[in-house]
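// run 5 | inverse folding | seed 20
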């Protein structure tokens, strides 16, 4: 196949065809896999959100249940129930009109603040009892976020409420609000009062509370002798429910969790509907109907707004409540990364096709270019440019073999260069101390002299010689003498600046050059430092043989401008120091 096609065209054509086909298959596989992963991640996230909100909602109701059971058995509730009944019996008829006039009509506070009214000022027993217990009930309502709290006697008389709305002081068995959920809850408890047994109503509009959605939880109250004396009821608003359900963390832009009752109406507000959606918005979706049948799972269908969503659903039951809890996220948000991935894959595919095409046609130059590059490399190696990289040495063909041979040639050249540098270093540095020797010392001194002349700078040349060094070799041996020379070199290096210069002329003689001095006193201080540091450093090593340092100082340009003369003058000054007393410097 393709026998008559030139290999420069056939080879790229085959590579391009197979590469494009492979890229297409890989792209399709990646897209399908990403879609599955996104859906699985979305479902897992919805399940997690559903479980967390369900647990939080259950905890909310459980908290109210525990609190109601505790409060119903407290001394405050028992005594307040008995006291309010006594006060109720002492009120003049009509009792309802009397109390509503005192605590509603004549209440100086606005409707939302009527619970702040403590004393009606009529000097009645009821007002006295109200003043005694109302602060505790109001504090309970505020801290626990109950909308209201009620005390009802066994005859249906609503003896007390925190908020003083229109149901206050009415009779729940035969009064105006006998058909409300509050009255229904009272009748259920009152028919068969059982200590510790709680009852709960579903959310329904409650007219006395401006027709706002309300749920009631209540229980019977018994005195210390276990006699039934009335009912304690809490009215729960929707706001705490919304606080639980409308946590936006982890919900993204379109996610929400809400509760739906068996009547298909929302029991919590939607984050996407302005105003009140509880008991106003119907949710007749596949997820809700499945959950109402007691099932849990996920589905993809239209939500109550007609938008396609991923839904996780589960039933929610608590004390007779028969709700479902739904977690939704719009399908478009979940699949948005997939659409972006598709666009990226298309772009990458187009770029890949272009790259594959270029690579196919570049194969013809794959052999010639490395050969040209190696030819240039050989020219550069011939010019001793040993830092050049040989980039084709990993190839396994003939070009790679040539490159490996060139690597050997390069390695030999580098070794030869290192050997030359080592020999040059040995020629100009002392083998014992590593310090520059006489030839390098003079070269460096001439260089420093030229720099000082151009910059009008001052520097010092110091000629140093060890005192009594011969006694070390004679008494302790030449090995210890070598150690003393090495120690002296280290002391001199550590005592001067990094830019200063230390060299060894031979034997126990050293040269120190202090560059760029501000004044002569600086040179004297350094000379004194060198003498003292050497005496301290060699004292123990030389076993008190008196090995010290004599130092001669010459200053450029004060003493001379000649490098040779500066050495000679420093040498003469050193001998003067030895003749005087040793272990000192002289200028």
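// decoded
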């Amino acid at each position: 196949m393709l026998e008559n096609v030139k290999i420069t065209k056939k080879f790229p054509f085959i590579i391009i065809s197979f590469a494009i086909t492979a890229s297409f298959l890989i792209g399709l596989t990646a897209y399908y896999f990403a879609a599955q992963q996104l859906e699985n991640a979305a479902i897992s996230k919805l399940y997690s959100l559903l479980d967390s909100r369900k647990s939080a909602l259950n905890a909310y109701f459980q908290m109210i249940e525990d609190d109601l059971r505790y409060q119903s058995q407290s001394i405050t509730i028992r005594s307040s129930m008995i006291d309010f009944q006594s006060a109720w019996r002492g009120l003049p008829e009509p009792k309802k009109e009397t109390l509503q006039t005192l605590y509603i009509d004549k209440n100086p506070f606005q409707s939302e603040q009527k619970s702040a009214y403590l004393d009606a000022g009529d000097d009645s027993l009821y007002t006295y009892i109200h003043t005694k217990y109302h602060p505790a009930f109001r504090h309970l309502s505020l801290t626990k976020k109950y909308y209201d709290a009620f005390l009802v006697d066994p005859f249906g008389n609503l003896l007390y409420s925190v908020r003083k709305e229109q149901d206050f002081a009415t009779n729940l068995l035969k009064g105006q609000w006998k058909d409300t959920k509050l009255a229904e809850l009272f009748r259920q408890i009152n028919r068969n009062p059982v200590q510790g047994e709680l009852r709960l109503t579903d959310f329904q509009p409650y007219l006395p509370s401006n027709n706002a959605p309300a749920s009631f939880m209540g229980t019977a109250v018994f005195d210390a002798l276990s006699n039934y004396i009335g009912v304690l009821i809490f009215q729960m608003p929707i706001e705490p429910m919304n606080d639980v359900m409308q946590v936006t963390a982890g919900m993204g832009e379109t996610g929400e969790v809400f509760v739906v009752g068996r009547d298909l109406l929302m029991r919590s507000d939607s984050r996407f509907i302005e105003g009140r959606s509880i008991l106003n918005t119907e949710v007749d979706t596949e997820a809700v109907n499945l959950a109402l049948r007691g099932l849990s799972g996920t589905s993809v269908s239209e939500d109550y707004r007609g938008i396609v969503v991923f839904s996780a659903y589960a039933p929610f039951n608590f004390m007779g409540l028969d709700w479902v809890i739904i977690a939704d996220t719009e399908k478009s948000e979940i699949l948005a990364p997939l659409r972006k991935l598709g666009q990226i894959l298309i772009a990458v595919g187009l770029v890949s096709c272009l790259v594959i095409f270029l690579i196919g046609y570049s194969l013809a130059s794959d052999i010639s270019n490395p050969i040209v590059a190696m030819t240039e490399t050989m020219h550069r190696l011939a010019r001793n440019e040993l830092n050049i990289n040989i980039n084709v040495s990993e190839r396994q063909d003939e070009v790679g073999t040539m490159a490996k041979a060139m690597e050997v040639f390069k390695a030999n050249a580098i070794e030869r260069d290192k050997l030359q540098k080592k020999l040059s270093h040995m020629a100009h540095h002392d083998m014992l101390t590593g310090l520059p020797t006489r030839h390098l010392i003079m070269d460096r001194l001439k260089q420093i002299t030229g720099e000082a002349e151009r910059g009008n700078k001052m520097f010092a040349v110091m000629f140093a010689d060890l005192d009594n060094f011969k006694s070390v070799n004679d008494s302790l041996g030449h090995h210890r003498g070598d150690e003393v020379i090495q120690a002296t070199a280290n002391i001199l290096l550590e005592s001067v600046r990094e830019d200063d210069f230390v060299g060894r002329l031979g034997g126990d003689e050293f040269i120190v050059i202090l560059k760029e001095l501000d004044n002569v006193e600086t040179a004297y201080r350094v000379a004194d430092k060198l003498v003292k540091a050497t005496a301290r450093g060699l004292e123990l090593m030389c076993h008190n043989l008196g090995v010290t340092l004599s130092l001669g100082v010459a200053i450029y340009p004060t003493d001379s401008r000649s490098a040779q003369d500066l050495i000679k003058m420093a040498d003469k000054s050193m001998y003067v120091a030895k003749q005087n007393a040793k272990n000192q410097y002289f200028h």
